[in-house]
């Protein structure tokens, strides 16, 4: 018996439908904000074109379309951003072990 569930001030694990009608679109808003910030940093010229990749769409990471491609794009952008922040970081290759790549990214970010 869960007495008191749903009281004000209590946090619960709610899905998007329980948080309000706009919650389902929050990921799209976050992706558009991310894209605006990447454009300010000239990501298209510095990160995407050198790897012969297409620029991101407004909803690229908000919708799971091709997880392998999306993961590689994430890793490419992460490596570029780390390098841009002044920490040399080797660009991961498409067929590198995903666990090793993420471990390297997290390790580098912890060193900041």
From TrEMBL:
Stretches of the chain forming a coiled coil according to its record: none
Pfam annotation, one family: IFT57
Annotated compartments: Cell projection, Cilium
Bias (Basic and acidic residues) ranges: 1-17
Annotated Gene Ontology cellular component terms: cilium; Golgi apparatus; intraciliary transport particle B; microtubule organizing center
Classification of source organism: Eukaryota, Metazoa, Chordata, Craniata, Vertebrata
Residue span of region Disordered: 1-21
UniProt key word Protein biosynthesis: no
Family: Belongs to the IFT57 family.
Any one biological process term the GO annotation gives: intraciliary transport
Gene: Ift57
The entry's keywords: Cell projection, Cilium
Name of the protein: Intraflagellar transport protein 57 homolog
Species name: Pteruthius melanotis
